[in-house]
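Researcher: For the annotation table, I need structure tokens for sulfate adenylyltransferase. Please keep the output clean. Sequence:
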Amino acid sequence: MTELNIKMTEEIELLRLVTVGSVDDGKSTLIGRLLVDTKGAFEDQLLAVRKKKGQEHHIASASEIDLAMLTDGLSAEREQGITIDVAYRYFATPKRKFIMADCPGHEQYTRNMVTGASTASAAIILIDARNGVMPQTKRHTHILALLNITHLIVAVNKMDLVGFDQAIYENIREEMQAYCDKQGVKNLICLPMSALDGDMVAVRGDNLNWYEGKTLLETLETLSTLGDIDSLPFRMPVQLVNRPQTVDLPDYRGFMGTIASGTVKVGDKIVSVPSGNSSTVKEIVTFDGNLDEAFAPQSVTLTLNDEIDVSRGDMLTHVGDKAMDAKELTANVCWIGDEPLTERQKYIVKHTTNSVKAMVASIDFKTDIHTLDHQQDADELAMNEIGQITLKLMKPLHYDRYVDNRITGSFIMIDTFTNNTVGAGMIV
């Protein structure tokens, strides 16, 4: 392992997770179980959601706790027994720290699920063993595949309600494996469990001895979080040009931003797009002091040896390894707006730190989530529908394909009148 990778291993000890699935598959209960079993819930939280009265100052066991209530924090969620908004929860083990997003299962809240999954490195797809694979399960799985989530874990939950029947689990596993194979998903893990009783969550339990794989928590602790982020081309969207104008720093000009991918070293030859002006890196400045080398996803300030034209929205790359640029692009879109997407409509495309006016040139097709077939000649994309569109831009956009770079290959679409986010796009 290189010295850089060792540094990255020390820095990136946090795994971002998302839980998805259909209604009542047990997502909130699962997170509650993980919080309890990893000691991630405070005593006052446990007392607040206890099922029984009588023990005012102590929770005797997890059976006394309404696990779902640990994450369903909105009053409407408690009243209806459903998850409406994305709930983020933190827990940790001696091996790793986690941030898990509990996403809504209802179709009308799919837009919230897209938000929760957009920054995740791994996803847990819960399936109720009694109901099998539901339409919303397929919709969420397809979105996760489009988002290029590195690790997908299919957790067949509520096995206690089907007598821990191995045949039921195997049927669901085979169906999900076939569905994911069609989309080119490579890292699929399937396991049975009971979130309510705790079998195969943090401990094996006594009821699923026929399953020889790891528990869910063991699986999460051993997933790779590094990927190939250090080997990707260097990309740094400029967020701010820092000109302090002080007596001590009369000529200081620093370009601030988060490194989207790759690495940069002092002395590297870099170019700013779209201007095409180039220079070499003079300093890599951070809050903790200057560095000789920086890597994604660090936030840094770069100073250059030459005064070149760089503004917010520009992108810094290595010379000879620039991003693609075009005034027309094709993208897969998850539509989350109340009003449908139609041809000739105008939107603002927000890509990294850049915003560009755009028009929908064509709707190439929308996808049938059940068969993954492309339905040609679509007139519109309604809320929660997924399809491929072509956009014409007012000025060139500098980007990578989404399959090559999740940061520089993604964008959101903003309604020009309401300023609402209405679409999440992945550049093809």
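Researcher: And a one-line annotation?
Model: The radius of gyration is 24 Å.
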